[in-house]
Specification:
The structure is a homodimer of 114-residue chains.
Chain A (H helix, E strand, L loop, with lengths): L2 H8 L2 H13 L2 E2 H8 L3 H13 L3 E6 L2 E6 L1 H12 L2 H17 L12
Antiparallel strand pairs in A: 1-3, 2-3
Helix pairs in contact in A: 1-5
Chain A binds a DNA duplex (30 and 30 nucleotides) through helix 4.
Chain lengths: 114, 114
DNA sequence: CAATTGTATTCCCGAGGAGGAATATGTAGC
DNA sequence: GCTACATATTCCTCCTCGGGAATACAATTG
């Protein structure tokens, strides 16, 4: 389970939609995801297989159903990967702060209510 | 600049390597990235174009050089996208906490300072 | 057992995209 | 101007990967 696997997996719009659906609906069966996504069943199963390989979802067998749910491990790995760049956008804020303290006139004042 | 653009862009290993190189080296020219990455110049320029479209990098013209640097906006957008799933891995911790409070013997006690 | 439902897998096809080579554009220096 | 260097773009090829249809596997029901 590397961040690379996760980022490869989420680099596809329909897989991101499935993640969003699982987030919104909670644990779901394949049929429910087919219904909710508009994709066909084989496509959903294939995407879920990729997501499983990236530890973004996990499965639980329940009779002839398979219940899928989000797996926090992969999601957190990707979050951390982007978090490692946090200094980049922190630097942006620092620059903005510096601009403000150097020349406050650069910033538009809030519109005043009458 | 949507999170989708960013995630599509980082869904490619060499682009992730370029982001890592820019993070490690700071602002760099194309030639320096060619040298550091082992990729050929046209490939680097093409990847940088995609990264620019996703607002992951920005450019500054400097004579016949073009200096590229990371752009915090795209990076932060992706970070936030994954952050929207934070409840998923928080739920994992909550489950762990519950285990701990149910049976403290499961967790090794902290070593006490004398 | 057969029939039905839920899911996974296989095979094929086509679009997209990454890499290579060559070329175009732009800029500096003589 | 011409030449050299830095970068961007074009064209082509190959290959990965997503979608569709059909099929295989699994589990429930009668």
């Amino acid at each position: 389970m590397s961040a690379a696997d996760v980022l490869d997996a989420v680099g596809e719009p329909n897989r991101r939609r499935l993640l969003g659906l699982l987030h919104h609906r909670g644990e779901s069966t394949v049929s429910e995801l087919v219904e909710a996504s508009g994709l066909r069943q084989p496509q959903v199963s294939k995407h879920l297989k990729v997501l499983t390989g990236a530890v973004l979802v996990s499965t639980r067998a329940d009779g002839r159903y398979r219940r899928y749910r989000l797996d926090g491990r992969g999601l957190q790995a990707a979050h951390d990967w982007f978090g490692s760049f946090e200094d980049v956008w922190q630097a942006r804020f620092d620059t903005l702060d510096e601009l403000v303290s150097t020349d406050p006139g650069l910033v538009q004042p809030e519109e005043q209510l009458p």
